[in-house]
Amino acid sequence: MSDDHGLVEMQPTPGQKLAAIFKQREVRVATAWGVLVTFIFFIIGGWIYPSWMPIAMSTDMKSIERLIVIFTWISAPICGIVLGFSIYTFLHRHKGDTPPVDGPGIRTNGLVVGLWVIVSSALCLVAIVYGLIEMNSASAATAEHKKNALVVEVTGSQWAWSFNYPEQGVVSHELNLPINRPVEFRIISVDVNHSFWPVQLGVKVDANRLQTTVVDTTPNKLGTLDVKCAELCGLYHAYMETSGEVMSAADFNAWVTSHQGGHTA
């Protein structure tokens, strides 16, 4: 007498489903492409991106550089998966005038969808947490250094920047700063909206009419600064730029002394 009627067919486990997926040649090849693309993005994020960026001359610019590298690494696996399957599809696309036979209709794959959601959510969570940590650390540094900060009043107008140092009694069209001293920028516009962007300091903030915007940073490297407007502000927007320098404390004091008494630099 047969006992076959008592046997229950077992459903495959998630591990068995995953193994079955990777037994397919096209999945293995596409995954290999994905790993290669991921590795390339790791190289780009870690070594190529920083070489393309301006010289970091402040704590904020260094943080931005680090943030771009880490976010590139976080997004690399997602880009790798998408581009890996895209490359495989492109290389094995149908050729000729005869359309291929339709494959079996597949509405969804719970395992693949679940893995995609979990991995994507984990990477997004890491990015959010890291961003919040950086933001809180920047806010703490601002509060700590506020008392010793050099105040610079930045005024944007079509199409020039001017910098007032109220404590020193100096007005200049060049942005000169002492190294390793916190700086508090108070930014305003006298006409249309501009965007104050001292490139090497990693600061970019709107200059609005009738409203002062405050932002701070700490220059930590000697060198030349490029100051630009990063918001379209009229006909000569592209020429709204000036320069400056992060200099030693002694050189900054000498510069202040030579331009005190109402002289404009």
Read across the widest sheet, the strand sequence of neighbours is: 3-2-1-5-8
Beta fraction? 15-25%
How far apart, in Å, are the first and last alpha carbons?
A: 106 Å
Shape: elongated
As residue ranges, the low-confidence spans are: none
Q: What share of residues is helical?
A: 40-55%
Biggest β-sheet, characterized? 5 strands, mixed
What multimeric state do the chains show? single chain
**Kindly state the mean pLDDT as a whole number?**
84
Q: Please give the radius of gyration in angstroms.
A: 28 Å
**Structural class by helix and strand composition:** alpha+beta
Number of distinct beta strands: 10
Question: What does it look like?
Answer:
With 265 residues, this protein is an alpha+beta fold. The chain folds into 2 domains: 14-92 and 110-144, no CATH class; 149-259, Immunoglobulin-like (Sandwich). 44% of the residues lie in helices and 21% in strands. The protein has helices at residues 14-22, 25-52, 59-91, 110-145, 249-259, and strands at residues 150-157, 160-165, 170-172, 175-178, 183-189, 194-198, 205-207, 213-217, 223-229, 241-247. It is elongated, with a radius of gyration of 28 Å.
SSE topology:
Blueprint: H1 14-22, H2 25-52, H3 59-91, H4 110-145, E1 150-157, E2 160-165, E3 170-172, E4 175-178, E5 183-189, E6 194-198, E7 205-207, E8 213-217, E9 223-229, E10 241-247, H5 249-259
Parallel strand pairs: 1-5, 4-10
Antiparallel strand pairs: 1-2, 2-3, 5-8, 6-7, 6-9, 9-10
Helix pairs in contact: 2-3, 3-4
